[in-house]
Amino acid sequence: MRRPGLHARVTFAFAAGALAISAAMALLSYTLTAQTLLSGRERNSVRAAYFDATVAQAGLATDHPDVMEVLRTLDTGTSRRVAVRRDGEWYARSADSVARFIPKDLLDMVMAGQPAGQRVMTDAGPAYVVGVPLSPSTGFFVVDSLQQLDDTLGVLSLVLTLVAAGTTAAGAAVGWFTTRRALRPLGSVTRAAREIASGRLEARLDPTAEPDLAELTSSFNGMVDQLAVRLERDRRFAADVSHELRSPLQTLSAAASVLERRRAHLDERTATAVNLVSQELARFTDLVTDLLELARADQPVDLEQVDVAELARRTCEDRTLPAELVTVAPGTNTVRTADRRRLARVLANLLDNAERHGGGVVAVRLGGTAGSLLIDVEDEGPGVAPHDRTIIFDRFVRGRAAHARGDGDGTGLGLALAAQHVSAHGGWISVVDRPGGGARFRIELPGVG
Amino acid sequence: MVHEPLVVGLALGHDAPMATVMVIEDDDRIRLSLLLALEDEGYAVTGVATAEEGLIRQRRQPVDTVLVDLMLPGLDGFDCIRELRRHDDVPIVVVSARADTHDIVAALEAGADDYLVKPVAVKELTARLRALRRRIRTSAAVPSLVFGDLEIRPQAGEVRRRGELVRLTRTEFHLLCELAEHPGIVLSRQQLLSRVWKYDFGDERLVDVHVGRLRHKIEDDPANPTRLVTVRGIGYKLQR
Which of A243, A305, A314 sits opposite B190 (nearest CB)? Predict the structure, then answer.
């Protein structure tokens, strides 16, 4: 799983912090409030219970008291229900059957003479039971409903929860905006880096824009300066090498052609020597040209719309091969975005290879799916053994000539160059099986053209 | 610095005027080898080692074609081409060790007709020289072709815009005529390379840069051409 970015992490941290603080505060507030309200309520309950107990006591002080009558005289309101236990019997107002809510322990305690209070759950919600002993045989009980308080506390907890949630969201928002503002200077670093990567080495950061990032700015600018110097040096070296190799070859080539012209006037020995010079010079020139091109192959491609089928036909014709060798599978879009020069070189290399090692090109097929374009160059020669199929694309690997030809072997760089050019297009080149024998070199160019 | 005296080349035995070539190349050995080889091929060749000398020579005794290297001491090849072009339409072929697109396009934009990368085989060089010398074969029976304010007269070798003579190099003229003789028809870059430069399989940059140069000379707004238009993916056409 990808690690979330800096922005996300900071925002999350802010949100988590806000959540922790607001949750703690909410919890604390709730607990304290609930505690306070509850104990206050209980105190009130006890006070009221004692008041009623006193009234009941007075009413029961006669010889033959009517307990029910005494109970009826009490003013208990709607939230309080009273009951009396006297001589083992429960007395309560008709609708208030509360005896079952009075816990046994509390009952025993009160009947033993000890006043007590306890929170219980009743059919009407939470309540506080107070028991006041009136005499060894009489106990006065009040079941005071806490429902209202409970409701209030419920609202309080809801409000606190919402506030906590709101605070968390606000914290996240604050975190998000803060990081955005803090990261904005890095946006300019990103842009500068991107410009440099695409070759525009003049991009530098402005040190006055963000004084806090002064160190980053100056080291970044320093790095780019170094890079530019290094690249310039490399470029100059490559140009120098190219010049130093090409110049003597020009002289040799022109001078050799002068010698060649006069071959008829030379004795046999000299003529042979001139032959050797000419041939090797031609080979050497090809080698140097290929090597220099290989060295430059990492330059960016020069892209344009190319009709690959047309290019293939022209390349064939340029080698006095019939254009009919090129066939296109129906429905194939042969127009692609490519570097025409490089692609032409690749096709030329493959055609030359087929001529030199495969006994001649038999087909150039274009086809492919909606995405990639496939170009197959086929011959009916000895083919390429499976274990050789990767190494032939290495440098200086040469195959055997299909039959002795005057121009001799190739430079060994043709396929290496082809591979480099094809991969510069994001494609790949390989040797695949050909039914019926022979070699099939396949280029695959990706993309939708 | 010694430069070779003007060498009178081999007599060809007929009345055709011998083609004259000037080679502007600072490397002594390259210059000498090219002189020898081109003379063998029947050209009357002059060699100079600096652009300054070349410019002086061309003014005094103009040649049919100039071969110029780009990396010269003093005035470089690019400036040499530009300077030549201020007064001269002589065909200019660049022969240089520099192979980057940037250099090729810059040399062509400066006014060169063709660009060859060293080492160039003598056969190739002479083929290029022949291609540049050829007269334009025109099949048009009409003496003039009109495209709005542009009047092209292939036989007379003239182009006029709003009556004013337009100075074009031989190649630019040839290219314009080729397009004019097929009005409204799109010619691909390979077709143009074949007909104008006589390349079987040439470098499209030659056509692209020359079209750009033509547009600067015949269009009101070269950046938005209305006569010499590009047909994307196919080529160029000249329309009325």
Answer: A314
